[in-house]
Amino acid sequence: MESLLAWLDDPRPDTGLHIAEAGDAWSYTPYPELAAEVRRFAAVLLETGPEPGAVVSLMLTRGRCFVVAFMAALAAGLTPSPVAPLASFRRRDTYAAHLEGVLAVAEPAVVVVQEENAELARDAVRGAGGKAAFVAAPAEALAEASGTGRSALVPRLPGARDPEDMALLQFTSGSSGTPRGVRVSWGALSANVRAIRDWLEWRPDDVFASWLPLFHDMGLVGGMVFPVSTGTDLWIMTPEQFVRSPRRWLDCFGRHGATITTAPTFGYAHCARRVRPEELAGSDFSGWRVAICGAERIDPAALAAFATLVRPYGFDGTALIGAYGLAESTLAVAGSRPGSGTPVVRYSPGDLATGRRVGAERAGTLGEPVPAAGGDLIVGCGAPVGDLTVEIVDAGGAALPDGHLGEIAVRGASLADGYVLPDGTLAEFGSGTLRTGDAGFRWDGHVHVVGRIGDSLKVRGATVFAEDLEARLDAVAGLRPGRFVVLLGQTGTGGHAILLVEGSRSEPWLEEALATLRAGLAPGIGVSVVIGRRGTIQRTSSGKPRRRVLWTALTGSAAGTWTTVHGPAPTDLTSPAPRTHAQTPPPNTASLDTASLNKPPTNPTPTNPTPTNATLTGATPTNADPSEVDPSDADPPDATPTGTTPANPTPANATLTGAPLTGAGPSEMDPSDADPADTGPADMGPADMGPADTTPTNAGPNRVGGDGVAGRDRGSDGVDPDGAGSGRVDGAVR
After folding, report:
1. Is the separation of the CB atoms in 294 and 616 below 8 Å?
2. Separation of alpha carbons 292 and 712, rounded Å
3. Using one digit for the tens of pLDDT, what is the confidence trace for 251-292?
4. Where is the AMP-dependent synthetase/ligase domain (predicted)?
5. Computed from CA positions of residues 668, 671, 673, 677, in that sequence, does the dihedral angle turn out positive or negative?
6. What are phi and psi of 394, to 5 degrees?
7. Residue 152: what pLDDT?
8. Which of 174-188, 200-214, 346-360, 621-635 holds the top average pLDDT?
9. How far apart are CA 176 and CA 102, in angstroms?
C-alpha cells in the first residue's frame, strides 16, 4: 500500500513526466521536481482543514496539474475523486446537472478546479446542498502560496492509510441513470497496481505513453497511477491531440523509446487509417513490447491493419495483447501475457446458450490477418491477473466447466467495496464475489467476453448479443462503426431489434444491413431501422450507448428525432426499455436466465448493484469506453433519470469504453470528416473505462451490471474519429 507513494520519498532522477504541448512540443518534469510539487500542493490541501480521508473532487483537464493534484490528495491522506470535464458533454446545462449529481454523492470537502470552471463548481456545490473549500489548479495555487510566503513544503505527511480506508472515489458515467461512485480502498488500489506491474512484467527501463482521459479508470489507474508510482518515464497526450495527430503518439514509441501503452481498438485503427507509411520513416518500434487493447470489442482486422503499418519498422505483433477489466475491480481483471501472442477464436453464435458448450476453435493470432468467413471472431483476454480469480457461473452461481457460456464472476483483493449511492449509503457487492453481468466463457486458458447479459435476445434456444450483431454490421458498406447501435428487447408481439443509424440516407446500406441482421436473428424477430442526425445516439461520458434511455426516447415523445426507414415505427412498440440486467434473483443468487433476459424491467432498487463498465475486455465491446479516450467525447450526462423520456436527447459522443466495444466508436471524432466540429474534444469518445455503467437498476445481488458490453465498455473509451472503433477494454477493458 505504501508503495503507491514511495516514489515521493525516493523519486528517480532519470525519469519523469512528459506532457504534450502545442504543436509538436513536449514539456518535461523530472520526478524529483514533480514529487516536491506534489508535497507542496498537499500542504495547500491540508490548509483548508479537511478531515482525514475527506473527498477532494478534481475538476482539471491539464495533464501535469491533474497528476500533481491527484497524488497530492493521496499524500495528504485525502481521497481524490476525478470529475469528467465540461468538454465531455455537449450541453452546459446537461453537464451542470451531471456535476451537481456527482458532487451531491461525493460530498467533497475540497474542490480543485481550473478558473474557467470555478463558477460551475460553486453553483454545483450549492445546488447539491454541500459545503466545500475551493482551491485553484496546482500551478496557480502554488504560485499564490509562494507569493504570500506560506510554507513551501510539508514537514510531515500523514502516515500510511489502513488498507480498508477509501483511496479513490471513481464515478460511473451513468449510462442508465444517476452516476454512482465506486468506492476503491487503499488495499484494492494497491493490489491492482501490483497485479498490473506483475502482469506486464514491468522493467525499470520501461517507458509508458498514453492518450486516454485521466478521469476514467483505464487512463487513470493504468495510464497514470501505475507508471508514476513505479517511477516509469511517462508521456501523456490528450485524446484530442491523439485524434488530430496519431503519428505524434506513434512517435512516442518510434522516436522516444516508449515500450508500453493501452488503448481501445479505435486507437490502433485510427493510426492505421490516418498515418501514411512514409511518415514513419526513421522510426524504430523494436522496443515496443506491450500494446494492450481493451475498452471495446477488439476487432482482429483493425489490429492486423495496424500491425501491417508498423511491422516494417520493427514492431513485433506479439506485443498486441487483449485484456478485460472494469472499474468495480479497480481496473484490470485479466490479460494476455506480453510476447505470447493473443489468440483469435472462431465460434458459432448458434452455440451461445447459458450452460451450453461453445464450439470454439483457434482461428489465428491478434495482429495477423484472419479470414472472416466461417463464424464470428472473438479475441482472448488472457488469464486473471494478480490474486484475482475468474469463474464462469450459471444462473444459480455454480461454476461451469471451461468452454461453457455463463456469467463472468470475479473475486480478489482488487475488488472495490461497492457503490456510493445518492443517499450516501454504500451498496456493497457482497460475499466477496462480483457478478459482472458480462457473458463469457473460458477456453484454452483465456477469458472470452461475449457480451452484456442484458443486451441480448434468446433465439431458438441460443442467445444473440447486440454487440455480435454490431460487429457483423461493421462490414456493411456505408455503415460507419461508431455511428450506429443495435437495441434488443421484447415488445407486445415478441422479440424486436432496432438499428439506430446516424446519417441522412439509408439507400446505400439498408438492404445489406437488413440481410445481416436477419442472418443473426430468426424469423419472427421484428426489425426496425431508424436514422437520425449525427450526435443523436446518446452515450455516456465513457462512450457507452445509453440503451435504456435510447429505447425509452424512441418509443416516447422524443421519437421525432429519428426517421423510420424500415419496419414498425418505435412508437408503435408497446414495451418499456429493454433489460440491461437479468431478472433480480433471490438474495445472493444472481440469475443468468437467458429466457428472462429481455423481459421488461420493473426497475427495483437492487441491494447489490451491478458493475457498469468494463475497462479491459477482449470481447465485443458494445459500449466502447471511448470515454476513456476522450474527455471531449462525453455523451449526455446521466442527468436524465432512468426510465424517463428526455424531451431533447442530447447528442453524445462515444469516448472509449472497456467492454466489448462493438460499434461504440466516437463517431464525432472523425478527423476525416470535413465538419470541423468533429475534431473537437467533445467528439472524442474515449473508451470506458470508467466505472460508468454501474447502474444498479434491475441488477441482481452481487451483480455488476450496466448498459455496456463486456470487453466493450463499451467504452472504454472509444474515441473513433472514423468510427473505426468500437470501445471497451476488453479485448477489452471496460
Report:
1. yes
2. 14
3. 999 999 999 999 999 899 999 999 999 999 999 999 999 999
4. 26-419
5. positive
6. -90, -170
7. 53
8. 200-214
9. 15
